[in-house]
Amino acid sequence: MLFQLPNDDQLYQALLDRDPTYDGRVYVGVASTGIFCRLTCPARKPKRENCSFHATVADAMEAGFRPCKRCKPMAPEADGDPIVQTLVKALETDPQRRWREDDVVRFGFDPSTVRRAFKRQFGMTFLEMARNLRLREGFTTLADGGKVIEAQLDAGYDSPSAFRTAFAKLLGVAPKELKQDAMLRASWIDTPLGDMVAIADDHALHLLEFADRKALPNELKRLSKTVKGQIGIGRNAVIEQTAKELERFFEGHSDQFDVPLVMHGTPFTKEVWTALRSIRAGRTKSYSQLAKDIGAPTATRAVARANGTNQIAIIIPCHRVIGADGQLTGYGGGLWRKQKLIELERQYL
């Protein structure tokens, strides 16, 4: 179990409030109907005496309940939410469109409801997702050797300054500062949990982060300073290997990553990151357990800080560290991703 369930009275109140906090973490079985639901199910709420609460889908099914056809508790939340499903499909159909709230309204959706739904599922709003996708088009153009003006137009920006500002905000550097012949190459990798930025030289991977991570621009600035600005764009064999290993990981074929890594950190942080790689997929540890593993039982806070500065996501699995009470704790890529990763890795046990 990933965290300690609150008592049933608290969970019933969460059911009445349709609290999204527990989506994917708690399910309610309704004795009067024989079905189990998400706590956010839009159906009429059952009486308290008819409710039982279960930590997993398997627990609910073993108790004799069948899945609700309205909230679809056996499907990922994005698949069960028609708002998310409709807008993601629209975005995939027209990625270069400059989406605005007016467009959301034309679909018949309330903008505030859409913001909450996307933040809950993806850690970003629909409009932020659309902007990132447009910037990615510009990034790809630059990686293919295109000029900045071509990248700007491919990203759907009329103003060069607006494109540079948006690009710098996402990646921490202006487009013109990315060199074609640099020692390190930056590229984009698709994953089921969102786009990732990978940076590697011809021998090893230096950075792998979700593109919407708030700390990414600062991480890129530090890395750029370390390599004296030698960060360019494009793919190389190391990034291709990283992409293939991530694909196998998400498809459930392998939890092994063999791509060579360069860890930019102090000896202590490198020791913590090495210890993280010893945690088996499907298992979790607390910060205090990790501190004991490296022979520093009083350094729990320092271990937590080192965990938070990891800049090679998934491969150095900082998502496998949870609070001492079993609660999911902070994760730079978003708690929703942390939970998805832990759930995905159970199959590797």
Describe this structure in words.
The protein is globular, with a radius of gyration of 22 Å. It has three domains: 68 residues, DNA Methylphosphotriester Repair Domain (3-Layer(aba) Sandwich), CATH 3.40.10.10; 96 residues, Homeodomain-like (Arc Repressor Mutant, subunit A, Orthogonal Bundle), CATH 1.10.10.60; 82 residues, Winged helix-like DNA-binding domain superfamily/Winged helix DNA-binding domain (Arc Repressor Mutant, subunit A, Orthogonal Bundle), CATH 1.10.10. It has 15 helices and ten strands. Helices cover 43% and strands 11% of the residues. It starts with 7 loop residues before the first helix and ends with a helix. The relative contact order is 0.08. The chain is an alpha/beta fold.
Keywords:
single chain, 349 residues, alpha/beta, Arc Repressor Mutant, subunit A, 3 domains, 4-stranded mixed beta sheet, 15 helices, globular
What is the assembly state of the chains in this entry? single chain
What top-tier CATH class of the largest domain fits best? Mainly Alpha
Task: Calculate Rg over CA atoms.
Answer: 22 Å
- Strand arrangement in the largest pleated sheet: 3-1-2-4
Q: How many structurally independent domains? A: 3
What is the CATH homologous superfamily assignment of the largest domain?
Homeodomain-like
Largest beta-sheet details:
4 strands, mixed
Give the overall pLDDT as a whole number.
82
Q: Can you tell me the CATH architecture of the largest domain? A: Orthogonal Bundle
Percentage of residues in helical conformation: 40-55%
SSE class: alpha/beta
Question: Could you tell me the number of beta strands?
Answer: 10
Low-confidence stretches: none
> How much strand?
5-15%
User: H/E series, N to C?
Assistant: HEEEHEHHHHHHHEEEHEHHEHHEH
Overall shape: it is globular
Intertermini distance: 14 Å
Tell me the number of helical segments per DSSP (H or I, 4 or more residues long): 15
At CATH level 3, the topology of the largest domain is Arc Repressor Mutant, subunit A
